[in-house]
């Protein structure tokens, strides 16, 4: 791997985000329909948290089993708020960072998505899948 390849080469910028005040059912639909595994939580353009599919699965399937989507959405919205599910102490990387820096961060933690920021503004995301695809194309 080239030591100083820019992070912007592999980061995704067309992000699906959610705001803290939105219903948890919207999050469920984003995961189900969007084919995504990580959703940044924002306030305006500022990153305030991240929710992974596994974070969401802990609250939505263990307790509620075989409900219909409508029933599940009503239960989720009644019992939880976005801030109950999100991780707030996110590790991030600056947009000016390198692919190598992202690889080190992803490799030294147990998460698979790294929000990319400029200051506190969310500008993208890099996932372990992005990194694997990059390495496969070398």
Please give the count of helices: 6
The CATH homologous superfamily corresponds to CBS-domain
Task: Provide the CATH architecture.
Answer: Roll
Largest sheet, in brief, is: 3 strands, mixed
* CATH topology assignment: CBS-domain
Class derived from helix and strand content: alpha/beta
* Low-pLDDT segments, ≥5 res: none
Verbal overview:
The protein has 138 residues and is an alpha/beta fold. The chain has a single domain (7-136), classed as CBS-domain (Roll). The chain contains six helices and six strands; from the N terminus they run βαββαααβαββα. The longest helix is centred in the first third of the chain and has 11 residues, at 24-34. Keywords: CBS domain.
Short description:
It comes from Roseimaritima multifibrata. The protein has 138 residues and is α/β, with parallel strands linked by helices.
Describe the structure using short key phrases.
three-stranded mixed beta sheet, alpha/beta, 138 residues, CBS-domain, single chain, elongated, 38% helix, 6 helices
Compile the SSE list and pairings.
Elements: E1 18-19, H1 24-34, E2 38-43, E3 46-52, H2 53-60, H3 69-79, H4 82-85, E4 93-94, H5 99-107, E5 113-118, E6 121-127, H6 128-136
Parallel strand pairs: 1-2, 4-5
Antiparallel strand pairs: 2-3, 5-6
Helix pairs in contact: 1-3
């Amino acid at each position: 791997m080239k030591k100083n390849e820019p992070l912007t080469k592999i980061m995704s910028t067309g992000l699906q985000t959610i705001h803290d005040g939105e219903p948890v059912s919207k999050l469920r639909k984003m995961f189900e329909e969007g084919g995504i595994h990580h959703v940044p939580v924002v306030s305006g353009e500022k990153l305030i948290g991240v929710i992974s599919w596994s974070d969401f699965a802990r609250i939505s399937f263990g307790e509620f089993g075989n409900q219909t989507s409508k029933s599940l959405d009503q239960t989720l919205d009644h019992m939880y708020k976005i801030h109950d599910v999100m991780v707030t102490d996110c590790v991030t990387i600056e947009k000016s960072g390198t692919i190598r820096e992202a690889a080190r961060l992803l490799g030294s933690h147990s998460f698979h998505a790294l929000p990319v920021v400029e200051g506190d503004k969310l500008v993208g995301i890099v996932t372990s899948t992005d990194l694997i695809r990059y390495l496969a194309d070398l």
